[in-house]
Specification:
Radius of gyration: 22 Å
CATH architecture of the largest domain: 3-Layer(aba) Sandwich
CATH class of the largest domain: Alpha Beta
Order of helices and strands: HEHEHEHEEHEHEHEHEEHHEH
Number of domains: 3
CATH superfamily of the largest domain: Bordetella uptake gene, domain 1
Structural class: alpha/beta
Shape: globular
Number of helices: 11
Largest sheet: 6 strands, mixed
Strand order of the largest sheet: 2-1-3-10-4-11
Distance between the termini: 67 Å
CATH topology of the largest domain: D-Maltodextrin-Binding Protein, domain 2
Strand content: 15-25%
């Protein structure tokens, strides 16, 4: 009797393993929903759509975008956290994945380190330090010299508390040992207009969309947050050149994640399709035109990157005593 019972358990276990293998081996067998926590038309949404198109071809199933904007992308993030871990509901996320829980704690409604399975980091979107074209300041060194000698005499704009521009500005202040005045706005657009008008000294702005304003002589670049000089702005020094090596790590990332406990075979299948899509010449051309730096790493590499990203911003947010914007 005991032997028969053990045999039955072994048979059930074997059948379950075979079923899981069959399901993951066939994946995907139906359309995949890719949830984006931002409105259509923004950088994260655009990159998600470019990838979804080519990944759909590679996977043989449609990947459709579901925009769930609001609450600093937390609505989308919570929804994917609670989705079935089967690979059919995915998250295309960015900086806020880590920053929101640091600012809000349990109120964020998820833990970025335990509630998701990383698939791949698609790209990073470098930040560029810009100021008004007619500003008398000639360099980042000159700007920081003033900031170091006169606390809060130098102001920097951002799209809001806890955004990439805010965090980059606070990190620069920490590294330069300078206290600068943060001026938050409701979005990068309004912030850049204030910088153009000279009412705020400078800001860190995503590289996407800057070229036209530079060509029109509305703004000038102090430094670019990339490891190498950008081809579209060859005369602009890197942050490393002006004394802050490694600053390119502040570039907001955009990447794909699945709910925790998604089967490794499914994760690997999605990663393979994503990396291959990112390697396509037409995809590379589209993303590089936006100013994105393509990554396309493995799940393990992306997981390690996200841990470093979390630790970096946890340190900056606590050191600068940054609080969540409750307005």
């Amino acid at each position: 009797m005991k032997k028969s019972f053990l045999t039955l358990i072994a048979a059930v276990a074997c059948a379950s393993t075979t079923l899981v293998y069959a399901q993951t081996a066939e994946f995907p067998t139906k359309p995949i929903r890719l949830v984006v926590g931002f409105a259509a038309g923004g950088p994260t949404d655009i990159i998600a759509r470019v990838l979804a198109k080519d990944m759909s071809i590679l996977l043989g199933q449609t990947i459709f975008i579901d925009n769930k904007a609001g609450a600093s992308s937390m609505i989308a993030t919570r929804e994917v956290k609670n989705a079935a871990p089967d690979g059919y509901t995915l998250l295309f996320s960015s900086l806020g994945l880590n920053v929101n829980p640091i600012l809000l704690g349990e109120q964020a409604g998820y833990n970025p380190r335990t509630d998701f399975t990383p698939i791949s980091n698609a790209a990073t979107l470098p930040l560029v330090a810009v100021q008004a074209y007619d500003s008398p300041v000639k360099s980042m060194a000159e700007l920081l010299k003033t900031a170091q000698s006169k606390p809060e005499a130098v102001s920097f704009a951002s799209s809001g508390n806890g955004g990439s521009g805010h965090l980059a500005g606070e990190l620069l202040g920490t590294l330069a040992k300078a206290k600068m005045l943060h001026v938050p706005y409701k979005g990068n657009g309004p912030a850049l207009l204030e910088v153009m008008a000279g009412r705020v000294d400078f800001m860190f702005y995503p590289v996407i969309g800057l070229a036209d304003n530079v060509a029109a002589k509305r703004i000038k670049i102090l430094a670019v947050g990339t490891a190498k000089r950008l081809a579209q702005f060859p005369d602009a020094p890197t942050m490393s050149e002006v004394g802050f090596p490694g600053f390119e790590a502040t570039a907001p990332w955009v990447g794909m994640l699945a709910p925790a406990k998604t089967p490794p075979a499914v994760v690997n299948r999605l990663n393979d399709a994503m990396v291959k899509a990112l390697a396509k010449p037409e995809v590379k051309a589209q993303l590089e035109k936006l100013g994105a730096v393509i990554v396309g790493d493995s799940p393990a590499e992306f997981a390690a990157y996200l841990k470093r990203d979390y630790d970096r911003w946890d340190h900056v947010i606590k050191a600068a005593a940054i609080k969540a914007d409750v307005n």
